[in-house]
Amino acid sequence: MNLAALFSKDKREINLLPKDPFETSLVGRALNWGLVVGKWIVITTQMIVVGIFLFRFSLDRKLNNLRRDVEAEVVKIKAYATIEDNFRLAQARLVLAKPILEEQEKMKASFPYMAQLMPNDIWLEKIEVNKNQISLIAYAYSMTGFNQFLENLKGSGNFRQVSIQNIESGVEKQAKLKFSLVASFKDEDKKE
Fold it and tell me: Could you tell me which residues are beta bridge partners of residue 136?
C-alpha cells in the first residue's frame, strides 16, 4: 500500500448507487446546496441559542446578586431614615423655637427694668409679661409707694397705657393696698 496514494488530492469516490439525473440538473444541485447550507444554518442557530441560554444563567445569577445587594442597601437606608426624620424634626422645632426664645430674652430683660421702677414698699404677687404688655398683681405698704410706682410707670416713656384693673384692701398680707394693673408697651425695643 502506498502512503502517497492515501494523502494525494486525487481521491476517487466510489458510489455503488446509480446516479440520478436529477442530482446533476441545475435544480437538483440548487436543492443539494440549499440542504447543506440550511443544515449549517440550523446547526449555527442552535449553537447560538444554547450559548445565549447558558449566558442567561450568568445574567440571572448577577441579577439575584444585585437584588440581594439592593435589599441590603434598602435596609441600611431605612435604618438611617429614622435618624434623618428625627434630625429634620429637630430642625423644624429649632426654627419654631428661635423666635420664641428671642422673645423670651426680650421679656426677661423687662424684669430688671420693672424692679428699677418699683419703690421699696411694693412687692409682687404675680407678674405676666408678653410682647405687648405687662400685667401684675402687687401689694403696697403705703399710698405714697403706690402713687410713686404709677408715676414711675407713666414717666418711663416705655408704656403706651397704664390701666389699673382692681384696687382692694391688702390687710391679709399686712399691706395698705392690693392692686392689679396692666401696662401696654409702646415699642418692644424700648421695654428693655
Answer: 127, 181
Q: Are 164 and 181 in contact (CB under 8 A)?
A: yes
Q: What is the 3-state secondary structure (H, E, C) of the chain?
A: CCHHHHCCCCCCCCCCCCCCHHHHCHHHHHHHHHHHHHHHHHHHHHHHHHHHHHHHHHHHHHHHHHHHHHHHHHHHHHHHHHHHHHHHHHHHHHHHHHHHHHHHHHHHHHHHHHHHHCCCCEEEEEEEECCCEEEEEEEECCHHHHHHHHHHHHHCCCEEEEEEEEEEECHHHCCCEEEEEEEEECCHHHHC
Q: Which domain holds residue 81?
A: 19-106
Over the stretch 97-151, which tens digit does the pLDDT of each residue have? 888 887 777 777 777 777 888 888 888 888 888 778 888 999 998 888 889 988 8
Residues 98 and 124 in one domain: no
Q: What is the pLDDT of residue 79?
A: 86
- The pLDDT, as a whole number, for residue 61 is 93
Q: Which residues pair with 177 in a beta bridge?
A: 140, 169
Domain boundary among 51, 75, 106: 106
More confident residue, 150 or 18: 150
| Type of residue found at 113 | Y
Domain assignment of residue 1, yes or no: no
